[in-house]
């Protein structure tokens, strides 16, 4: 099978992308239902390639991908939503799909949408070009989500994935890792002028300002997504890891 530069679609609710072609390898990121993965080569039960959105490289199990020509027109706007085998709440399955997943609509009723993976309640989806007023409007969906290195879903994620997924929902491109986010967003500001949506960077860590006094981040020491004071966080990270705040960047397109 020739698999170089083949565009596959993710069919699992969330799939791991590994550093090596081994499930015991480090998870470098994850990819959600309906997103695209470009394959370069095949290693047994794994494809080597990269996520189409940000060209993030790694290995993914072949069972998570399929060839699909149906355009994904909608995205999931809730933290998670149940799948149903029929458009009736009595036919709920034990499967869920997550915020920011991409779906195609095959059929619909008054309250339900038939997607390529099953029926969902219509209230859980919006067209892919839908945006909230501010990208942080969706932060409530992630509060108290567990910290997971390499995670990209409401089941678990890390600091830079939190930033990426929130911006991705509002159709604002963002790299995956904090070091690349720091380089990508150019406008640097001083802490006295910080405002909602600004990104605070440390070595290996990023947080998002909620206002002049508070921030939100997926914080490893707390093992979840939490709201903390800005001054408190700067002091805590320095006292624990001796890491100073490197810079604050502003996202121009909001």
Short description:
The protein has helices at 159-169, 178-184, 230-241, and strands at 6-10, 14-18, 27-32, 36-43, 46-51, 57-61, 65-66, 74-76, 80-84, 92-98, 102-103, 105-108, 112-115, 118-121, 125-127, 152-153, 156-157, 187-189, 199-202, 205-209, 214-219, 224-229, 247-250. It has 254 residues and is mainly beta.
Largest sheet: 6 strands, antiparallel
Order of helices and strands: EEEEEEEEEEEEEEEEEHHEEEEEHE
Radius of gyration: 19 Å
Helical content, roughly? 10-25%
Calculate the mean pLDDT score and round it: 96
Morphology call: globular
* Biggest β-sheet: strands ordered side by side in the sheet: 18-23-19-20-21-22
* Unreliable sequence segments: none
Structural class: mainly beta
Report the β-strand fraction as a percent range.
Answer: 35-45%
Q: In DSSP terms, counting alpha (H) and pi (I) runs of 4 or more, how many helices? A: 3
Topology, number of strands: 23
Distance between the termini: 43 Å
Structure description:
The chain is mainly beta and 254 residues long. The strands form seven sheets. A six-stranded antiparallel β-sheet has the order 18-23-19-20-21-22. The termini are far apart. Helices cover 12% and strands 40% of the residues. The chain has helices spanning 159-169, 178-184, 230-241; strands at residues 6-10, 14-18, 27-32, 36-43, 46-51, 57-61, 65-66, 74-76, 80-84, 92-98, 102-103, 105-108, 112-115, 118-121, 125-127, 152-153, 156-157, 187-189, 199-202, 205-209, 214-219, 224-229, 247-250. The radius of gyration is 19 Å and the shape is globular. The longest helix is centred in the last third of the chain and has 12 residues, at 230-241.
């Amino acid at each position: 099978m020739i698999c170089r530069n083949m565009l596959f679609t993710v069919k699992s609710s969330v799939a791991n992308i590994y550093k090596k072609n081994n499930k015991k390898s480090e998870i470098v990121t994850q990819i959600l239902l309906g997103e695209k993965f470009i394959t370069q080569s095949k290693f047994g039960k794994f494809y080597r390639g990269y996520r189409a959105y940000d060209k993030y490289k790694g290995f993914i199990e072949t069972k998570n991908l399929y060839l699909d020509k149906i355009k994904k027109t909608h995205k999931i706007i809730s933290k998670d939503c149940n799948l149903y085998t029929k458009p009736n709440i009595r036919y709920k399955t034990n499967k869920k799909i997550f915020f920011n997943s991409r779906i195609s609509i095959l059929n619909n009723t008054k309250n339900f949408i038939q997607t390529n993976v099953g029926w969902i309640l219509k209230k859980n989806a919006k067209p892919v070009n839908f945006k909230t007023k501010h990208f942080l409007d969706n932060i409530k969906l992630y509060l108290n989500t567990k910290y997971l290195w390499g995670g990209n879903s409401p089941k678990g994620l890390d600091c830079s994935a939190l930033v990426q997924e929130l911006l991705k929902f509002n159709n604002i491109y963002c790299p995956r890792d904090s070091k690349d986010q720091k380089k990508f967003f150019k406008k640097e500001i001083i802490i006295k002028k910080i405002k909602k949506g600004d990104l605070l960077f440390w070595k290996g860590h990023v947080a998002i300002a909620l206002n002049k006094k508070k921030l939100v981040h997926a914080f490893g020491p707390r093992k979840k997504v939490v709201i903390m004071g800005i001054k408190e966080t700067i002091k805590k990270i320095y006292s624990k890891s001796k890491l100073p705040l490197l810079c604050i960047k502003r996202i121009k397109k909001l």
